[in-house]
Amino acid sequence: MRSTDLSARARIREAALVRFAEDGFDVGLRAIASDAGVSPALIVHHFGSKDGLRAACDEHVSEVVTHLKLDSVGPGGPEQMLAQLAGGDEHAHLAAYAVASLAAGGPLARRLVDLMTRATLESLEAGVAQGTIRPSRDPGARARYLTEASLGHLLLAYRHAREAGPVDLATLFAQHAANVVGPALELFTAGIFTDDGYLRAYEAATTPTAHDQGDES
Amino acid sequence: MRSTDLSARARIREAALVRFAEDGFDVGLRAIASDAGVSPALIVHHFGSKDGLRAACDEHVSEVVTHLKLDSVGPGGPEQMLAQLAGGDEHAHLAAYAVASLAAGGPLARRLVDLMTRATLESLEAGVAQGTIRPSRDPGARARYLTEASLGHLLLAYRHAREAGPVDLATLFAQHAANVVGPALELFTAGIFTDDGYLRAYEAATTPTAHDQGDES
DNA sequence: GTCTATATAATGATAGAC
DNA sequence: GTCTATCATTATATAGAC
Questions:
Q1: Which of A4, A98, A189, B16 is least surrounded by Cβ atoms within 10 Å, i.e. has the fewest?
Q2: What is the pTM of this model?
Q3: Contacts of B148 (CB under 8 A, 6+ apart)
Q4: DSSP code per residue over A77-142
Q5: What is the pLDDT of residues A33-43, one digit of tens each?
Q6: DSSP 3-state assignment of B211?
């Protein structure tokens, strides 16, 4: 909490956060330096290298997201966490950076996926306890599956929108939700199979009977 | 079908296909030229520019994939199409390029997503006719939702694997399938909600009653 | 068609004055 | 801490000989 935190170093990090989110991680140091109103050399002086700058951005976002009180995920999926981060307050550019980071990959991406998986698991288990969500054979695998699938879906939509032009996250989330809610509710309510033949066959193959157990030949 | 097709031009395109897939689209012309055993200038001579080279790769893959007889998608999802392309025969590097292209975005990506969405729709409708798949309120939206979600999920796994090291597609597909089959079958068989409250509420809000219709004030 | 040699532009990073 | 000036590298693309 040094007072220098409000100075050039923080200004550079903020500018980088925005530039990385808007133009991708291939953007040059000169553009960031120009946005921050400093010289390119000062960036290197403060962060060591471009990777150091990105690492500082990652750490900052990771810290804020981790310590943020997020509502339960609910049936909308983990993209609600991002939408919540993006919505309204001054964390909007953090959300933009988080989404860009998820789309581009890198160290922060895995952390965010894990974080959302955990939140999804908690939400699902709460639903199970309440009786609104069906129990699962493997709750952890289900939470990871649902989280990664809906996140991957969102990132596909994000990339698609980005290729058309600058992305407004609020618009993106709204349009994506509109496309997804119907089919998702349908799927989550009744599945797509008319009977449980596939699942029963899979369970029969993966959960060995008492007779099969201990027979390794 | 000119005989020159077997010469340097084709060799460059093949080398580019492999390099783009393995190292991403940021790879330099020098690396591709070296692989093809030609000078960088010859690449520009034949393809005009680096983008021209990529466009030629896109077109080649697009053409092969479009004219390929692919089995129906089935419950495994659209990644089966890619796994089928990758498996066995000499199209393996085309599949690698297709996956890399899907992961990185660009013009080919949208074409492939559309293609797989159509295949998924056909497969689902066949299942509906057979009685194994439940009918949908909006079959087109459902096919797109399922295709994009499972593709997005696969691409997340692909990127994750790539960041660890070189990717063998067959291994990737196998591991991803192993992680996904259980939760997917569970979801596709019975959903995750214990009752249809959410869906009924959504349907009530989006399908206006006879009384509501025509009332736009 | 294919090459060597080069032009031109942009990058990340450094040196050293202030 | 912050700057100017510059270096070294790499990139795509071009010019022109053969």
A1: A4
A2: 0.93
A3: A153, A156, A157, B113, B117
A4: -THHHHHHHHSSSTTHHHHHHHHHHHHH-SHHHHHHHHHHHHHHHHHHHHHHHHTSB---SSHHHH
A5: 999 999 999 99
A6: coil
At B95, the amino acid letter reads: A
CA distance B140 to B123: 12
CA of A166 and C1' of D8: distance in angstroms? 35
All domains in chain A, ordered by first residue: 8-192 (1.10.357.10)
Residue of A nearest to B103 (CA): A156
The answer to whether A197 touches A205, Cβ cutoff 8 Å, is no
Pick the closest to residue A94 from A78, A106, A112, A107 (CA basis). A112
Encode pLDDT of B178-206 as tens digits. 999 999 999 999 999 999 999 999 999 98
B30 Cβ contacts chain D strand, under 7 Å: yes
Q: Report B:182-201 residues touching A (Cβ under 8 A).
A: 182-196, 198-199
Contact A80, A73 (CB under 8 A): yes
- Residue B193, helix vs strand vs coil: strand
Instruction: Fill in the amino acid letter for A114.
Output: D
